[in-house]
C-alpha cells in the first residue's frame, strides 16, 4: 500500500482522521506492517506500551483483571487505534489483548511515535479534543442512563428468584417452554392460578435471552392510569416507561385487572408493537411510536382479546398436579431459610411429606413456601419437621376424617397380617360354611331345633345390619360365597390352565345392578312363599345358590366379578355401606406423586413395605373411590402399598351422599325393593293392620299379597315427590333419583327393627337349640331372652332415629328449605309410622 493510500485509509477508517494530511503522512512513513498469528498475546496488561497498533485485518479481543470497570474488556474492529491514550499520557496498558485470528497490524514503535508527537503538537491537541468529545458523550450518556434508571427503578426486576424446581413431567415441560420462549422475541402470555410465581417465570425468560443485559420491569396493570400516560408518555411532556425501556422487557402483571379503557391500547401494543402517546391538545394526532420492548403478559384469568394477539402461550401447572415435585420444593425452601438464618438443615419426616402431598394447595407455591417457613420457626431446634407442624395442610375433606391406622398402630399391624383375611377365611370360614350347609340339610328343619337356622336368621341378619353404619361392607371381606369362588378359580386354573376373561365393565355397569334387583326380588318371594326362615334345607339351598353364582363366574372371569356386579347380598351391602362412618381411601396426592406401579390396583411383587399381592379383587383403586359401594375391606391395597397412602378413616356417616355421590337408577330400585321387604316380612301384621282377609295358605293369594307388599310402599315416596313438584313451596326440588337416597336410613332402620325381635327373643336360645340339633336335651341350658317391652322399646327407638336421620340426610342432599321438602319429610314420617304399626305394635 502506497503512502498516499495509507493516509487515505487512516483518514477514512481510524480515529486519527481529524489530523492534517501532513501529519498523517508523517505517521505513514513510520508504519511497520506485521502479521500476528492467532492465539497470541499482542499486549500484556499493566506493562509499558511498546508501540501504537492499528488493526487492518483480523479479530482481537481484550481482557482485564479490573472487575470494577468491565468496560475495559472489549473487542476491536478494523481501524481500531490501540495505545493512543497510553502513549500520549504516559500510562501503562489497561488490557491484555489477544489475537483470535491471524491479524494484519500496522505498528508505529513507541519511540518513533513520541518523536512524531514532539514534532507535531497538533496530534496531542487533536486527541485531546477527541477525548473531550468522548467525555462529553459519556457524560450525556451517563446522565441519560441516570434519568432512565430513576424512571425505571420502581418497576425494575433485578434477578429471577429461582429456577423451576422438580423433576416431574410438568416441571420438565415448563423448563422447555421457558427455554423456547427465551430464544425468541415474541410476546409471551404466562397463564395460571394465583401463587405460581408467574412473574418469576417472566424473569427467567428475560435473563435467559440474548437481551439479558437490558432492563426488565414489572408493571401491575391494576394501578395503571386509564389514559396510559405512565406507560406511553405524553406528547411534549414526560416520557413513558416504554420509551425509557428501549429494547428491554416489560412484564404486564395481572393483565385481567387492566382498566377497560386501556385494554384496546395494550392489545394494539402487543399486536403491532406501536403505541400513541397521550395528547390532550386539539392538534392533529401525532404519528404512532414504535416500541422495541419485549412484552411478557402475566394473567390469572382468561383474556380472549390478549390471547388472540400473543405469540407464545405458557400455561403454568398448579401445584396439585405436580405432587411429585413437592419433596424437591420443600427441600429447596428448607435450604433457603436455614442458610439465611445460619441454622443446620432440617429433614422432612416421611409422614409430613405424605401429609403435604395429600393437600391440594389452593395458594400453590406461595402457600407451600409460607408453610415451610412457619414449620421451620415452630420446629425451633428440632432436627426434623414432623407431620404435626404442618397442621394447616389439610383439605376441607380431610378435616372431617381421622385415619384410624395412625391412631391405632396395632390395627394397621393386624390388618396387614396374614390373619386378615386369609387365615380367617381359609382357616375357619371355608370349613365352617361347609359344616353349616351340612347341618341345614341333615339336621332338624325348624328354627327352634336347628342352631344354624337360628344363627342365620336370628344372629347374622341383625348383627350385620347393625354393623353397616360402622364398618360398611365388612361382611364381604369374610364372605364364604366368594371364598369358594376363589377356591374354584384357583382349582380350575390348575386343572385347565388358561387366561380368564377380562371384565366388560360397560356392560356390567349397565346391567349388573338390574340383575341384582331381579335376583333379590326372587329371593324375597322365595323366602316368603316357602317360609325359608323356618325351613332349614331351603335356607341351605339359598346359600348354595349364591355360592354357585360366585363359583361359576369366578371360573369364567378374573378376580371377583360376581362380588362387584352380580351378588344380591353384595348389592345390599354396598347400598347400606354408603351410610358407614368409616371408609377405606388413599391419599390422591401421594399416589400421583410417589406411585408408578399401582400395585394396590394391579398387584405385583414386594416393594419396600408393600407386600406381594394379586391386586384389588374388585379392580378398585382406593384413591379413586367415590363411596363405599365398591370396597369390600379386604385390605389388599393396604398390604400392597409401599408409600403408606392407604387410610382407614373415621368420617361423618354417609358424607359423600351430599358431597361427591353419583346416583344410579338401579341402586334406587334396590333401595325401594328393600323398603318393600320390611312390609313383606310382616304380612300377617300388615293384613291385620289393614283389615284384609287374604288366605296366606293359598299360593296365588299369598303371591299376590306379597307383590303388593313390595310395590305399595314405594308409591308413597313417588306420590310425595309428585306433590313436591305440583305444590312447590320454594325452589324446584332436586331430581327424584338424588332425593331417593335420603330414605336409606329409614330402609336400614326398618329392616333392623324387624330382625331385632328375632335376635332378642330367639338369639339367646342358641345353647338349648344347639343341643336339640344333635338330639340332646338342652332344657337346662341357660337362656337369655329380652322382655317384650324391651324389644318394643328398642324397635321403636330404632324407627324414630331412622326417621329423624332420613329427614337430616334429605336436607343435606337437597340443600333446600324444610318447607320445600315438606312432602318428602311427610312421606318418611308416614312410612315410619306404618312400620311402627306392623313391627312395634
Automatic annotation (TrEMBL):
Keywords: ATP-binding, Cell membrane, Iron, Iron-sulfur, Membrane, Metal-binding, Nucleotide-binding, Transmembrane, Transmembrane helix
Subcellular location field: Cell membrane
The organism's place on the tree of life at top rank: Bacteria
UniProt main location, coarse: membrane
Residue ranges constituting the Sigma-54 factor interaction domain according to the UniProt record: 164-377
Membrane-traversing stretches: 424-443, 458-484, 511-530, 536-557, 665-683, 703-723, 735-756, 789-809, 821-839
Ranges of residues in domain 4Fe-4S ferredoxin-type: 621-651
Domain Cyclic nucleotide-binding as annotated: residue spans: 15-134
Keyword rRNA-binding part of the UniProt annotation: no
SMART domains to which the protein is assigned, alphabetical: cNMP
Protein name as catalogued: Sigma 54-interacting transcriptional regulator
Amino acid at each position: 500500500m502506497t503512502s498516499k493510500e495509507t493516509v487515505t485509509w487512516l483518514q477514512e477508517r481510524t480515529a486519527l482522521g481529524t489530523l492534517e494530511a501532513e501529519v498523517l503522512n508523517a505517521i505513514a512513513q513510520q508504519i511497520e506492517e506485521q502479521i500476528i498469528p492467532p492465539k497470541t498475546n499482542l499486549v500484556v496488561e499493566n506493562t509499558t506500551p511498546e508501540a501504537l497498533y492499528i488493526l487492518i485485518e483480523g479479530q482481537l479481543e481484550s481482557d482485564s483483571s479490573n472487575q470494577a470497570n468491565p468496560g475495559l474488556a472489549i473487542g476491536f474492529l478494523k481501524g481500531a487505534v490501540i495505545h493512543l491514550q497510553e502513549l500520549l499520557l504516559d500510562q501503562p496498558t489497561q488490557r491484555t489483548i489477544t489475537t483470535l485470528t491471524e491479524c494484519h497490524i500496522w505498528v508505529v514503535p513507541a519511540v518513533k511515535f513520541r518523536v512524531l508527537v514532539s514534532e507535531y503538537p497538533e496530534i496531542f491537541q487533536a486527541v485531546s479534543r477527541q477525548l473531550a468529545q468522548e467525555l462529553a458523550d459519556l457524560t450525556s450518556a451517563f446522565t441519560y442512563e441516570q434519568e432512565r434508571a430513576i424512571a425505571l427503578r420502581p418497576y425494575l426486576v433485578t434477578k429471577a428468584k429461582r429456577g423451576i424446581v422438580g423433576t416431574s413431567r410438568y416441571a420438565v415441560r415448563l423448563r422447555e417452554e421457558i427455554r423456547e420462549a427465551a430464544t425468541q422475541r415474541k410476546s409471551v402470555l404466562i397463564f395460571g392460578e394465583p401463587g405460581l410465581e408467574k412473574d418469576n417465570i417472566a424473569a427467567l425468560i428475560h435473563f435467559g435471552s440474548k437481551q439479558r443485559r437490558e432492563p426488565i420491569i414489572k408493571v401491575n396493570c391494576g394501578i395503571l392510569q386509564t389514559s396510559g400516560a405512565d406507560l406511553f408518555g405524553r406528547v411534549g411532556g414526560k416520557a413513558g416507561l416504554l420509551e425509557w425501556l428501549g429494547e428491554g422487557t416489560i412484564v404486564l402483571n395481572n393483565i385481567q385487572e387492566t382498566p377497560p379503557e386501556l385494554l384496546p391500547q395494550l392489545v394494539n401494543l402487543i399486536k403491532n408493537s406501536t403505541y400513541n402517546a397521550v395528547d390532550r391538545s386539539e392538534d392533529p394526532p401525532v404519528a404512532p411510536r414504535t416500541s422495541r420492548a419485549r412484552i411478557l403478559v402475566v394473567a390469572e384469568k382468561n383474556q380472549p382479546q390478549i390471547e388472540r394477539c400473543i405469540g407464545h402461550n405458557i400455561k403454568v401447572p398448579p401445584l396439585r398436579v405436580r405432587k411429585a415435585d413437592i419433596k424437591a420444593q420443600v427441600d429447596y425452601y428448607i435450604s433457603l431459610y436455614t442458610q439465611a438464618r445460619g441454622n443446620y438443615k432440617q429433614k422432612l419426616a416421611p409422614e409430613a411429606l405424605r401429609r403435604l402431598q395429600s393437600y391440594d394447595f389452593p395458594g400453590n407455591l406461595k402457600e407451600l413456601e409460607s408453610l415451610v417457613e412457619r414449620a421451620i420457626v415452630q420446629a425451633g431446634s428440632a432436627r426434623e419437621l414432623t407431620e404435626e407442624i404442618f397442621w394447616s395442610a389439610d383439605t376441607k375433606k380431610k378435616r372431617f376424617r381421622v385415619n384410624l391406622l395412625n391412631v391405632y398402630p396395632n390395627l394397621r399391624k393386624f390388618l396387614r397380617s396374614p390373619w386378615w383375611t386369609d387365615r380367617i377365611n381359609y382357616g375357619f370360614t371355608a370349613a365352617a360354611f361347609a359344616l353349616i350347609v351340612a347341618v341345614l340339610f341333615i339336621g332338624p328343619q325348624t328354627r327352634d331345633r336347628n342352631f344354624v337356622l337360628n344363627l342365620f336368621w336370628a344372629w347374622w341378619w341383625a348383627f350385620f345390619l347393625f354393623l353397616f353404619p360402622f364398618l360398611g361392607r365388612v361382611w364381604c371381606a369374610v364372605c364364604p360365597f366368594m371364598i369358594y369362588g376363589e377356591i374354584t378359580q384357583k382349582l380350575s386354573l390348575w386343572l385347565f390352565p388358561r387366561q380368564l376373561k377380562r371384565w366388560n365393565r360397560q356392560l356390567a355397569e349397565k346391567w349388573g345392578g338390574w340383575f341384582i334387583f331381579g335376583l333379590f326380588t326372587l329371593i324375597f318371594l322365595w323366602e316368603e312363599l316357602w317360609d325359608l326362615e323356618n325351613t332349614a334345607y331351603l335356607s341351605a339351598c339359598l346359600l348354595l345358590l349364591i355360592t354357585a353364582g360366585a363359583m361359576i363366574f369366578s371360573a369364567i372371569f378374573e378376580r371377583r366379578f360376581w362380588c362387584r356386579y352380580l351378588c344380591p347380598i353384595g348389592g345390599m351391602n354396598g347400598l347400606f355401606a354408603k351410610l358407614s362412618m368409616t371408609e377405606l381411601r388413599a391419599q390422591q396426592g401421594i399416589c400421583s406423586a410417589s406411585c408408578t406401579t399401582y400395585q394396590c390396583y394391579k398387584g405385583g411383587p414386594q416393594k419396600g413395605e408393600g407386600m406381594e399381592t394379586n391386586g384389588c379383587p374388585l379392580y378398585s383403586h382406593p384413591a379413586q373411590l367415590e363411596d363405599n359401594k365398591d370396597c369390600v375391606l379386604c385390605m389388599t391395597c393396604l398390604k400392597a402399598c409401599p408409600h403408606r397412602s392407604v387410610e382407614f378413616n373415621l368420617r361423618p356417616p354417609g358424607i359423600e351422599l351430599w358431597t361427591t355421590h353419583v346416583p344410579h337408577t338401579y341402586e334406587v330400585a334396590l333401595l325401594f325393593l328393600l323398603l318393600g321387604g320390611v312390609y313383606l316380612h310382616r304380612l300377617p301384621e300388615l293384613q291385620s293392620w289393614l283389615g284384609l282377609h287374604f288366605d296366606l295358605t293359598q299360593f296365588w293369594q299369598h303371591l299376590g299379597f306379597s307383590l303388593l307388599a313390595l310395590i305399595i310402599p314405594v308409591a308413597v315416596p313417588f306420590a310425595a315427590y309428585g306433590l313436591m313438584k305440583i305444590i312447590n313451596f320454594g325452589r324446584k326440588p332436586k331430581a327424584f333419583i338424588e332425593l331417593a337416597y335420603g330414605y336409606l336410613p329409614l330402609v336400614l332402620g326398618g329392616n333392623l327393627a324387624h330382625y331385632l325381635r328375632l335376635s332378642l327373643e330367639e338369639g339367646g336360645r342358641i345353647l338349648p337349640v344347639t343341643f336339640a340339633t344333635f338330639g340332646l336335651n338342652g332344657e337346662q341350658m341357660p337362656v337369655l331372652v329380652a322382655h317384650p317391652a324391651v324389644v318394643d322399646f328398642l324397635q321403636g327407638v330404632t324407627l324414630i332415629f331412622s326417621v329423624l336421620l332420613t329427614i337430616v340426610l334429605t336436607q343435606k342432599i337437597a340443600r333446600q328449605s324444610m318447607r320445600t321438602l315438606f312432602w318428602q319429610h311427610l312421606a318418611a314420617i308416614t312410612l315410619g309410622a306404618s312400620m311402627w304399626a306392623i313391627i312395634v305394635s
